[in-house]
Amino acid sequence: MNRSDLRFLVDFNVGQAVSEYLRTAGYDVSFIGELDPRMDDVDILDLAVQEGRIVVTMDTDFGELVYHAGRPHAGVLLLRMPGARREQKVEAVAQILSQHAPRLAGHFCVYQVGRLRVRP
């Protein structure tokens, strides 16, 4: 899988450092902080679907939208890392991509305590 095959929409709560890391690593990235920091979760998910982007977020509400409200998605990477510093988030995303990049698109993925769970 080429880096150009994966496109990301990084939520404001994940931060600009992850967005910059992904861009530097050669991925196509949009950052909510540059688009509209007040954009609500439904609009973020809709935009990601329209543009074929995987949402990278720390907001568990995306699980509610996908699994309980049945909202479509192009992939969600939920980082369960409360209180993590930006360097820790960047390191986690780098690790996830190095080990699991082909599994992210179209799946709901939860990263917690060094492990990634991938759900359909």
Q: Keywords for this structure?
A:
single chain; alpha/beta; Rossmann fold; 6-stranded mixed β-sheet
Give a description of the structure.
- The longest helix has 15 residues, at 86-100.
- The protein contains 5 helices and 6 strands.
- It has a 6-stranded mixed beta sheet with strand order 2-1-3-4-5-6, with helices on both faces.
- It has 120 residues and is an alpha/beta fold.
- α1 crosses α5 (86-100).
- The mean pLDDT is 94.
- It has helices at residues 16-24, 32-35, 41-51, 61-68, 86-100, and strands at 7-10, 28-31, 54-57, 76-79, 108-112, 115-119.
- It has a single domain (3-119), classed as Rossmann fold, CATH 3.40.50.
- The chain is globular.
Strand content: 15-25%
Give a count of the beta strands, DSSP E runs of length 2 or more. Answer: 6
Biggest pleated-sheet summary = 6 strands, mixed
Overall geometry: globular
Q: In DSSP terms, counting alpha (H) and pi (I) runs of 4 or more, how many helices?
A: 5
What is the CATH topology assignment? Answer: Rossmann fold
Quaternary structure type: single chain
Helix content: 25-40%
Give the H and E element order: EHEHHEHEHEE
Strand order of the largest sheet: 2-1-3-4-5-6
Task: Name the average pLDDT.
Answer: 94
Stretches where pLDDT is under 50 for at least 5 consecutive residues are none
Mind telling me which CATH architecture this is? 3-Layer(aba) Sandwich
CATH class: Alpha Beta
